[in-house]
Predict the structure.
Amino acid sequence: MLVATIVFALIPVLGVGQYWLFLVFLIFVYLAMVNMWNLLAGYSGLVSLGQPAFIGLAGYTTGALAAIGLSPYIGVLAGGGVGAAFALIVSIPIFRLKGVYFAVGTLIMVSAVQLWFNQWAPHGIAIKAASEISTTELYYSGLVIGIASIVILRLILRSKFGLGLMAIRDNEITASTSGVNVFRLKLYSFVISAFFTGIAGGVFYLYNVYVDPIGGFSISWTILILTSCIIGGIGTINGPILGVIVTVILQQYLARYVGIELLILGAIIVVTMLVAPRGILGKLQRNPLTGAN
């Protein structure tokens, strides 16, 4: 990973065009979001559809703090904090729900937040200070958050915390009777995911320079995250990396099909789940016990 990081760090120095810098920037920002969703769904058993809430909140926080003269990067960190605080607040009622009801509850959470912002700032806000940040600087910001998400996910999975999460995913009742504090570990993973998803959202809106309720809390964020994780492989370390690359390529190609691009992505998700339920990497990996794919 160190070699890959060095290579990506050298890309702006090599004089790569702005369009390619933008694509790689998107890959790293999306990767942070997908890794955090993978932590929830792939390793904690929490299928959340509420990630757009953290992304939108972070975007608005970044814009609001930049408007009063604070550094955009302080706004990005604060956006992650706001996302984490919101996750902490809603976790009490949300965690009373199980399975599909949990997923629906997180989706309702997004709708409620979007409705509130439609009343408070229906036309959105411009992040004026972001226009002063160079494309190269934003590229490195995306690189940092993308690499950080990989490192953090690996550290979590190698810890007792990660083992506890996977035990909960496999069998919550058994994990509980074995001494695992189910609520606490779920809460930790939910808040951590919200924090880093919020930071990634803040960095994205520094590039976008503008955030509004329709885009900030859009279901398209959920579809993008689901597509990347399902294509690459839920519950795998490297699956999200492959999935995000494929999704960004698809996103650029499907831009010509305005209005139906989400339907096409949805169809791709369904086909992938039928053909390779464990994703591309999951399909390629052989079972160490049986030797089967």
